[in-house]
Write a structure and sequence with these properties.
Layout (H helix, E strand, L loop, with lengths): L1 E6 L5 E11 L8 E12 L2 E10 L7 H13 L3
Antiparallel strand pairs: 1-2, 2-3, 3-4
């Protein structure tokens, strides 16, 4: 688990967390890499959460795009 960023200036605060995984032994699903990205933010009394599950190598996970979407979603809470 890695905290990928905290953004205190977005709403009342936004945190983006990533859980990266690698299945190295062959099994019914084969060898796989991927991540689950989570964003939790608050704007006043309103809270939003986002989740994205994405396969791929760590360097190919769209953290920047996910963070941009999370910031926009939080900014639009009213």
């Amino acid at each position: 688990v890695r905290v990928l960023g905290t953004y205190p200036g977005v709403g009342s605060g936004l945190t983006v967390v990533g859980v990266f995984y690698s299945l190295k032994s062959a099994g019914p699903f084969g060898k796989r890499n991927g991540a689950h990205l989570f964003a939790v933010g608050r704007n006043g009394r309103l809270v939003t959460t986002l989740e994205l599950k994405v396969p791929g190598a760590r360097g190919r996970i769209p953290v920047g795009q996910f963070t941009a979407v999370a910031k926009r979603a939080l900014a639009e809470l009213r």
